[in-house]
Amino acid sequence: MTPLLKIASIETLYYDRIYALHGLSLEVKEKEIFTVLGPNGAGKTTLLKTIAGLLKDQPKKGIIEFMGKRIHRLPPEHISRLGIVYVPEDRGLFRELTVAENLDLGRWGRKDAEIQQDYEFIYGLFPILKTRSTQQAETLSGGEQQMLAVARAMLRRPKLLMLDEPSLGLAPKVARIVYDALNQIRQRRTTILLVEQNAKMALKIADYGYIMESGRIVLEGTSKDLQENEDVQELYLGLGGETISPKGWRLYKKRRTW
Ligand SMILES: Nc1ncnc2c1ncn2[C@@H]1O[C@H](COP(=O)(O)OP(=O)(O)OP(=O)(O)O)[C@@H](O)[C@H]1O
Ligand SMILES: [Mg+2]
């Protein structure tokens, strides 16, 4: 079966000379959750922006196909209309608009009969958004902003929902609400590409994972395989936290095998 998203040997550069993605390849299959894990500066955000078409004239090389059709270097509006919806790390909300206004803009002019059903779905995921509907987005807590960003993305009925570190800065309890919602979104058969530093949470929910380092994929496997992999355990799932300290990463780099 053709993967929903296929990326082959892409190269993305900043200022025409700094390689952020260096021959990166990966595939995302339909109706599953795929995660990309990696330390600071690995290129995770650049990867999502490249897919979404937000970096002009990038990727310089390689292929990105969505549902069997080439999408690389298409304008971002075009890519988005095909059903790829990107929730950036800063959540991309209209800060001065209310919750309800942000959601209405997220509809993108949809008037179909199913829109009501979609509102019910998102309010079911995040009931708090209903009680906050007249509140300005910038006055929401970080967790509520993330919920609003995910809810707004869902009103576009994405075929591929891409999220950049949705748990970043959230208390564990709040992060769990967001992750529970992602689980329900998957049950609705929406494919998710999730970029995270919180490997523990991401591997718990994902079906398949990629580990990225310096613009390349260095390891991939089912979440179960990755959770059982000794290197992954030590670096990402080890004692003392769920994120990687730069020092730990450098020490690790010297003796890693991938
Ligand atoms: N706008 C930019 N201009 C120049 N270089 C950039 C730009 N954005 C990112 N980079 C560089 O590209 C590399 C990858 O950055 P990127 O933000 O994609 O990493 P990341 O994996 O998302 O990191 P983090 O976990 O900190 O979010 C880094 O070396 C970064 O300095
Ligand atoms: Mg990033």
CATH homologous superfamily caption of the domain at 1-83 and 161-166 and 189-258? P-loop containing nucleotide triphosphate hydrolases
Just name the CATH architecture of the domain at 1-83 and 161-166 and 189-258: 3-Layer(aba) Sandwich
Residue runs with pLDDT of under 50 for 5 or more positions: none
In which order are the strands of the major sheet placed?
6-7-8-3-9-10
Shape: globular
Element order: H for helix, E for strand: EEEHEEHEHHHHEHEHEEHHH
- Count of β-strands: 10
Quote the distance from N terminus to C terminus.
Answer: 29 Å
Number of helices: 11
pLDDT averaged over residues: 92
* Helix content percent band: 25-40%
Level-1 CATH class name of the domain at 1-83 and 161-166 and 189-258? Alpha Beta
- What percent strand? 15-25%
Radius of gyration: 18 Å
> What structural class is derived from the secondary structure elements?
alpha/beta
Find the CATH topology of the domain at 1-83 and 161-166 and 189-258. Answer: Rossmann fold
| Ligands, deduplicated | adenosine-5'-triphosphate, magnesium ion
Taking the sheet with the most strands, its summary is: 6 strands, mixed
List keywords for this structure.
single chain, 258 residues, alpha/beta, six-stranded mixed beta sheet, four-stranded antiparallel beta sheet, 11 helices, 37% helix, 24% strand
How would you explain this protein's 3D organization?
This protein is of the alpha/beta class and 258 residues long. The chain has a domain at 1-83 and 161-166 and 189-258: P-loop containing nucleotide triphosphate hydrolases (Rossmann fold, 3-Layer(aba) Sandwich), CATH 3.40.50. It contains eleven helices and ten strands. It has helices spanning 44-52, 76-81, 99-106, 115-125, 128-131, 142-154, 172-187, 199-205, 223-228, 230-235, 246-255; strands at 5-14, 18-28, 33-37, 61-66, 69-70, 84-87, 160-164, 191-196, 208-213, 216-222. Strands 6-7-8-3-9-10 form a six-stranded mixed β-sheet, sandwiched between helices. Strands 2-1-4-5 form a four-stranded antiparallel β-sheet, covered by helices on one side. 38% of the residues are buried. The mean pLDDT is 92. Bound molecules: adenosine-5'-triphosphate (ATP) and magnesium ion.
